[in-house]
Amino acid sequence: MMNDSPDPGNAIAFQGELGAYSHLSCRNAYPGMEPFPCRTFEDAFAAVREGRARYAMIPIENSLAGRVADVHHLIPYAGLHIIAEHYERISHHLLGVPGATIADVRTVKSHVHALGQCRNLVRELGLTAIVGADTAGAAAEVAARKDPSFAAIASELAAEIHGLVSLRAHIEDAEHNTTRFVVLAREAREPNPNLPCVTTFVFRVRNVAAALYKALGGFATNGINMTRLESYMVGGEFVATQFYADVEGHPASHGLRLALEELDFFSHEVRILGVYPQHPFRIHKRFSFE
């Protein structure tokens, strides 16, 4: 653990250092709560489970990089409930020490995904890219080295925390670069079933022909929109597969109730991880494509 929370009832845990994009998401989604940085996702889950933080803000997928490694394996066994989702537009900055200019920079350090999302700038400036553990850590290193030729790709919040300057803003190659987070708590929270909701669940099927097709048939016949389906091996075995799924709807609604009943018939170990309100970003994007 990176620090102790002075007020567990008002703390929100996240993986990474202060200034990370997860920290930025905590501040934007819950501005009145105190950020609680943790070294690993497991540490963030434990902070909530053990009562040292109220919530955990966990990234689950990015519009460019895809799913966040390991999270889908960890959340089903965290002993927590998903109570909300949050979408954070990722705006990368090239950060340097005060007094540095773009012309001074020769080397840039950041997380591998951030570097990959800013390839055009790295190529344009002819920079040597160094992969770091995370964006905020790279910003901290720039501040410590005080070398005008050494820069980081990180958030504007990281610049604020470490006393750096943004040499160029919004340097990401794609304007749609967005990360989806889920918020976890010790207790489930029941949203209004009459409002747009998301239901997240896991289930297993045997590795036999048509098992998944039969298990998911009820979602199609009942008009349920499945927005995410991830698969991974269970316990290193090839005979069974676990799936992590998001669907739009509340289990109390007629269609989703029937779909889950059919899923339960053709699969096993169906377990709901959370039922929570749809974020406005999701609703806006859906209608923008209709």
TrEMBL record:
InterPro entries linked: ACT-like_dom_sf (IPR045865), ACT_dom (IPR002912), Chor_mutase/pphenate_deHydtase (IPR008242), Preph_deHydtase (IPR001086)
Residue ranges of domain Prephenate dehydratase in the record: 11-186
Key word Signal present: no
UniProt keyword Nucleus present: no
Single GO cellular component term: cytoplasm
Catalyzed reactions: prephenate + H(+) = 3-phenylpyruvate + CO2 + H2O
PROSITE patterns in the cross-refs: ACT (PS51671), PREPHENATE_DEHYDR_3 (PS51171)
Site (Essential for prephenate dehydratase activity): T179
Keywords for the protein's UniProt record, in alphabetical order: Amino-acid biosynthesis, Aromatic amino acid biosynthesis, Lyase, Phenylalanine biosynthesis
Domain ACT: 200-275
EC number: 4.2.1.51
Domain of life of the native organism: Bacteria
Name under which the protein is recorded: prephenate dehydratase
Classification of source organism: Bacteria, Pseudomonadati, Pseudomonadota, Alphaproteobacteria, Rhodospirillales
